[in-house]
Amino acid sequence: MSDTKRMNESVGQGLRVVVVTGAGTGIGRATAQAFADQGAGVRVLAVGRRAEPLAGTAERAPERIVPVVADVTAPDGPELIVREALERFGRLDVLVNNAGIAPHATLGGYTREGVGALLATNLTAPVLLAQAALPALTASRGVIVNVSTAVGQRGWPTNSAYAASKAAVDSLTRSWAVELAPLGIRVVAVAPGAIGTPIAAHAGIGPERRAALRAWQLAHTPLGRIGEAAEVAWAVAQLASPQASFVTGVVLPVDGGAVVS
Fold first, then answer.
1. How far apart are the first and last CA of the chain?
2. Number of C-beta neighbours around residue 259 at 10 A
3. Which of 48, 188, 201, 238 is the most exposed place for a label (fewest CB within 10 A)?
4. Which residues contact 149 (CB under 8 A, 6 or more apart)?
5. Confidence of residue 211 (pLDDT cuts 50, 70, 90)
């Protein structure tokens, strides 16, 4: 059966299929689990590069979360991910572009290779994955949720390229919201602030520097605490819900007030 026929036959069956990239840890894991918690009518493809963390994500609801090992930056990554959704479930309703890397460096410390890898993950991959998913999302009148960062709306000393890559994601969100509206596709973004995830450790930042970063984040967060991944996941799930059907083009900060301080 062709992908188009499978999509057409599956629309209206009540199943809602969600793809979450970067789902092995942090916000991605919490988001995959938040969608799975919505009940038996939801299936989540939890996408990441490593099988072991994805298995940990799926433990929450193994009957509803399907781990998919894939690299969003690989030449065939976007097509593989979409194909997995269609072959398993025949449709795709929500695409959450969450995978990202955040290597800290001053302007003088960046390398061509490092900036290239950052943009490949944070900017190019969401573009190509959304492109690959476009026919399926058109069939389901689906939703794209991009995960950016609150500091993309301000500035982040020692992490300017990361902040810039995520500001570009905000711009994509607004542009796609207008471009894809005639297809019935909504596009929204969530911009987390200081959230308790392992992204800094994954970037190779040592304990002392991580502590200094947290102190800086707390000083710029009016609510005076670090957020939780589940709080960001709640926002993603709410914006993707059918009840948010008249919301598109919005970039929602989940940052304890950092953007407005």
1. 54
2. 17
3. 201
4. 156, 162, 163, 166, 191, 192, 193
5. confident
Strands of 16-21's sheet, edge to edge?
65-69, 42-48, 16-21, 94-97, 143-147, 186-192, 251-254
Of 35, 89, 162, 176, catalytic: 162
| pTM (predicted TM-score) | 0.91
| CA quadruple 148, 153, 157, 158: dihedral, nearest 10 | 20
Residue 210 and residue 118: Cα distance in Å, rounded? 20
The two beta strands, 251-254 and 186-192, are parallel
pLDDT digits (tens, 9 = 90+) for 17-76: 999 999 999 999 999 999 999 999 999 999 999 999 999 999 999 999 999 999 999 999
* Phi, psi of 23, rounded to the nearest 5 degrees: -90, 5
Residue given tokens 């993707």 in the structure block: 240
